[in-house]
Write a structure and sequence with these properties.
The complex is a heterotrimer of chains A (379), B (292) and C (328). Chain A is of the alpha/beta class and 379 residues long. Chain A has twelve helices and 17 strands. Chain A has a seven-stranded mixed sheet with strand order 9-8-10-11-12-16-17, sandwiched between helices. In chain A, α6 links the parallel β8 and β9. Chain A starts with a helix and ends in a 5-residue tail after the last strand. About 2% of the residues of chain A have low confidence. Helix content of chain B is 74%, strand content 3%. Chain B has a two-stranded antiparallel sheet with strand order 1-2. In chain B, α2 crosses α3. The longest helix of chain B is centred in the first third of the chain and has 31 residues. Chain C has one domain: ABC transporter involved in vitamin B12 uptake, BtuC, CATH 1.10.3470. Classes of the chains: A alpha/beta (379), B mainly alpha (292), C mainly alpha (328). Chains in contact: A-B, A-C, B-C. At the B-C interface, α3, α4, α9 and α11 of B face α4, α5, α11 and α13 of C.
Chain lengths: 379, 292, 328
């Protein structure tokens, strides 16, 4: 009997404590790849988010509440990410940030959806926003937004009639390849070589031989950072002179560093870039580098803008309501004038996809150089 | 035609690496019943010794390479034998296999945790230029790899068959009990095999890391292919490891280019099953008798 | 003798009570972990049969888990009941296990390790490349949880009890198997294959049997895994999981009946309690395994038995650990 009373009291105290605590902070867990294949991307995302969180907290937080952001590591493993999201949901979060890996997001977004918690992810696979999930929001282009831009460039900028595709055989690469093939075929460009490669592959000799044999007007390479570097080196070694085109990753600073000279001349579409000639982005880059000691990649921008998006949308609603947040995000446009932290004008549609300006870039002398700014698709 | 030459050279270069790794593996198995599941990671680690020496010690590349080689001999040769193999082999082969699996995890995670999770560029010790040979572009790197592998194997063969120590090692491998009776310092011979293995994996590491980039996960596929190469070639002969390695390297490249890229990774399995079913002693192996 | 037996009985009842009560004090994440532990234990029990009792290393247990998981996912998303998945997965895994083991065991003792290693790669490639069947890299989502005789297992606590029930069934079946003449033949096999063979035991047939049955248990584990995580894709069933399962069996104590339970707990639950970074945990875990192999190759339960003996209480006789040296 006594134990029953004791536990009831304890429970009441706990609830009391929890509510008082909750009144002072808002819970924004970051579930992200901090180890495994996605470590570099995830760490960038996390650091960008932390930068934003610290800036916001220094100015009093969101609607007077400081942000509390516990981080958990998905280990780049969908199964683990699902468990971590479950754990995050148990802590009654306001919204969830991450993960980046498309496979992980697909494994865990159902949980957030069922719990009606908005989730801001860095993933790019096309089908994430096609599953009817009202609680998922991107922080960068989905493949269905970036591929049309690339296809346009190949058709209009390069005037190519045939293209060879080299892609990594995981959900990221396959999704990109499927969307890419659809877009170029719709523009009358023929895919003359369709080469799948492995994640972690080290030897690209056979693949470059196939690419050369296809004699295409352009080569589109869509793999992860290290494999991109290895491919570029092999292509350079075998004397490939056809234009090499990529999407964000191929023109990444890390790839350039690993590939050395072989990266020069690579062109492509860059959805997000820390090299963009926009003052707000440059300021972010400087702040990030100063604080963390390395230059951010596009994932840092994803994390940073995600937090500011949550802040701005919440301030618009005027209170902390998860369902209302999700509803408000759909169709929302945030401009840098309204919220400097968003860096560039961003619009979310009713599926959670993003629309923003993007860039065409080329690697010149070991640096990514923005060559052209492309407008938003909509509006 | 140029393509075939290209693929052949690339295949031989990759195969050369497989051969180096497989030889060490076979040597260990033969002399001390050590099935080293961490062999792939052994190839991954020396490059990081060198990188660490350069980054933390500020040493120049040639000095760092030398230091890396020495550290590899000590750690992956001597310490591996004394700390891992000796205490465990007395319990049998199975616990040792498990330990080397754990060792592989240990090495991989240590590099990932304490050095870096992403790929690191590794300097090449020779020119990174290309030659045009018969329409194909052959990289000097690949030729160097083939040359070094050939020289290493030839030197090893000479050592084993032409010197007294080498012949003693062979005797130890074939019949340790008898060797002991004949007064051969069996323990020392076994230690030599571990050191030779360490040397071979260091060599392989320095050869491939400039191309593959140094990364903690490099060992995974390399290890698997080395095991298969050893078995396919013939487990009781060093020659077998060479044949197996070269065969796997070349076949992998040609299959990837002309047959299927998606199932490239399954080729080792098919070769393995084929060999087991039709020629269990390996392509150049001797048929082994069972000891009762 | 009676004291030891009573002690073990009390311990068993306590653990069982804990397992039954635990989910009511835990949040969904904790219940999920516990269910994962149950599922992994089933796979580990299968591997224990292969490794601990028949003395063979299998590096493909995760592949059988994958086969079971995909069977369940494909069938249940098409509306078939989970029971059908259990049957189909069991049959598939048994046949494949048999086909795989047959050539490998014909040759040399340790060849099964390499064959299973290569097989693990092949299965992963098939799961990933054959998109028309498995949806490839995109994975299968929305896997439903079964309704058992009117009882819906949709909620985490319900599904946990469903898994626990399956574990009880599997344990009972395995217990019966080991106590049966078959089981004794397995043990004889592992002790001394040469002697067993000279006594008329068809060593290859029994080893093959153990491997095939172990693989079936892997498949059953997979059939439970799919509705637990509700989204599967090929990388979950790659070599990493096989190595994990192998270490579970070894650390727990290969050849001991409760070894897999303990090993799975160490692998699934311990990292959560210790809260190290994943990399650090794996490093410590690996070092721990190496030390264990040097001093207590029969795993934690072997260690417990050793301490028991030292304390003077005669320990009940579990399976004696492997000593591999003769058949080569």
């Amino acid at each position: 009997m006594k134990t029953w009373i004791k536990s009831a009291l304890a429970a009441a105290l706990a609830i009391g404590a929890a509510t008082t605590a909750a009144q002072q902070t808002v819970n924004l867990p970051i579930v992200i790849e901090l180890s495994g294949a996605g470590a570099v991307s995830g760490t960038n995302f996390r650091d960008g988010a932390m930068l934003a969180i610290d800036e916001i907290n220094a100015r009093g937080g969101i609607l007077g509440r400081k942000i509390n952001a516990p981080q958990t590591d998905t280990q780049s493993n969908p199964g683990v990410s699902r468990a971590q999201v479950q754990k995050a949901l148990d802590g009654n979060p306001y919204a969830i940030l991450g993960p980046i890996f498309s496979g992980s997001v697909k494994a865990n977004m159902v949980l957030a959806q069922q719990a009606e918690v908005p989730q801001f992810t860095g993933a790019e696979a096309a089908d994430i926003t096609q599953a009817g999930n009202a609680y998922i929001f991107r922080t960068s282009f989905g493949q269905q937004a970036s591929m049309p831009k690339i296809a346009n460039y190949i058709r209009d900028g390069l005037k190519a009639k045939t293209v060879a595709v080299l892609w990594v055989n995981n959900d990221f690469g396959k999704g990109g390849r499927d969307t890419f093939v659809k877009e170029v075929t719709a523009r009358g460009i023929k895919v003359v070589a369709d080469i799948s490669t492995e994640s972690g592959q080290v030897d690209f000799a056979a693949d470059v031989v196939k690419v050369k044999g296809a004699n295409a007007d352009a080569i589109f390479a869509y793999t992860n950072e290290e494999e991109s570097a290895r491919f570029l080196r092999e292509a350079r070694k075998q004397g490939v002179s056809t234009p090499l085109i990529g999407e964000t990753t191929l023109l990444n600073q890390k790839v350039i560093e690993l590939a050395g000279d072989a990266a020069n001349g690579v062109r492509g579409h860059v959805g997000l870039s820390a090299e963009a000639p926009i003052p707000a982005v440059q300021e972010f880059r400087a702040k990030f580098t100063k604080r963390f000691g390395y230059v951010p990649d596009h994932n840092g921008i994803k994390g940073y803008t995600a937090v500011y998006a949550v802040k701005h949308a919440t301030e618009r609603i005027g209170k902390f309501d998860r369902k209302l947040l999700a509803q408000t995000m759909h169709g929302l446009t945030i401009t840098p004038q309204q919220e400097p932290g968003i860096l560039m004008e961003t619009t979310w549609d009713d599926k959670g996809d993003i629309d923003r300006i993007s860039f065409l870039a080329e690697v010149v002398d070991g640096k990514q150089k923005i060559v052209q700014t492309l407008p938003k698709l909509g509006k | 035609m140029a393509d075939i030459l290209q693929l052949l050279v690339a295949g031989l270069a990759t195969g050369g690496i497989y051969a180096l790794v497989a030889i060490g593996f076979v040597l260990l198995w033969q002399t001390s019943q050590t099935i080293n599941f961490a062999q792939g990671e052994f190839v991954m680690v020396p490059a990081f010794f060198v990188l660490a020496a350069m980054k933390l010690g500020g040493l120049s590349f040639p000095v760092a390479m030398l230091l890396g080689l020495l550290v590899t001999l000590v750690v992956l040769g001597l310490l591996f034998k004394r700390l891992v193999v000796d205490p465990i082999i007395r319990h049998g082969v199975l616990p040792l296999v498990i330990s080397t699996i754990a060792l592989a995890i240990f090495l991989k995670e240590s590099v990932k945790e304490f050095y870096a999770a992403d790929a690191q560029p590794f300097p090449a010790a020779w020119a990174t230029t290309n030659l045009a040979v018969g329409g194909a572009v052959v990289s000097v790197q690949n030729l160097v790899i083939i040359a070094v592998a050939v020289v290493a194997v030839a030197a090893l063969q000479y050592f084993l068959a032409g010197t007294q120590t080498g012949r003693r090692m062979q005797a130890t491998a074939q019949n340790p009990v008898l060797a002991r009776i004949l007064g051969i310092p069996v323990e020392r011979m076994i230690l030599y095999t571990f050191l030779i293995n360490a040397g071979l994996v260091a060599l392989a590491s320095f050869l491939v890391s400039p191309i593959y980039l140094a990364k903690f996960s490099n060992g995974e596929t390399l290890g698997l292919v080395a095991f298969i190469a050893a078995i396919v070639g013939g487990f009781n002969q060093v020659r077998g490891a060479i044949v197996g390695g070269l065969l796997l390297g070349v076949v992998d490249n040609f299959v990837a280019a002309y047959l299927t890229a998606q199932y490239r990774g399954a080729i080792p399995l098919f070769l393995l099953i084929a060999v087991i079913l039709f020629r269990p002693q390996g392509l150049v192996g001797r048929a082994e008798e069972r000891t009762v | 003798m009676t004291f030891a037996r009573n002690a073990r009985l009390i311990a068993a009842v306590a653990v069982a009570a804990l397992l039954l009560a635990a989910p009511f004090g835990l949040k969904p994440y904790g219940i999920y972990l516990l269910s994962l532990w149950v599922v992994m234990t089933i796979a580990a029990i299968g591997l224990n049969l292969t490794l601990g009792y028949a003395g063979q290393i299998s590096l493909a247990q995760a592949s059988f888990v994958g086969i079971g998981a995909y069977t369940a996912a494909l069938l249940t998303t098409q509306g078939w009941p989970l029971a059908a998945a259990f049957v189909l997965a069991a049959v598939l895994c048994f046949v494949i296990g048999w086909l795989l083991g047959y050539p490998a065991l014909r040759v040399q003792h340790h060849y099964l390790a390499f064959v299973t290693l290569a097989f693990a790669t092949l299965v992963f490639l098939i799961l990933r490349n054959e998109e028309w069947l498995t949806r490839g890299v995109y994975g299968i989502s929305g896997i439903p949880r079964p309704t058992v005789l009117g009882w819906s297992t949709q909620g985490p606590v319900d599904f946990y009890f469903f898994c626990l029930g399956m574990l009880a069934l599997v344990s009972a079946a395995t217990w019966w198997l080991i106590r049966s003449p078959w089981g004794r033949a397995f043990t004889a096999l592992r002790e001394n294959a040469m002697r067993a063979s000279s006594l008329g035991v068809d060593t290859r047939r029994y080893t093959l049997m153990a491997f095939a049955i172990g693989s079936v248990l892997g498949g059953i584990s997979g059939v439970l895994y799919a509705p637990l995580v509700q989204f599967i894709e090929p990388t979950a069933f790659a070599l990493g999981l096989s190595l994990n399962l192998l270490l579970m069996v070894i650390v727990g104590g290969s050849g001991y009946f409760f070894g897999p339970f303990l090993g799975a707990a160490v692998s699934v639950l311990l990292p959560e309690w210790l809260r190290f970074s994943e990399g650090l945990y794996l490093i410590l875990y690996a070092v721990f395994v190496m030390i264990l192999m040097a001093f207590f190759p029969s795993g934690l339960l072997g260690l417990a038995e050793r301490l028991h003996k030292r304390a003077g209480t005669p320990a009940p006789g579990p399976a004696v650990p492997t000593r591999d040296g003769e058949a080569s």
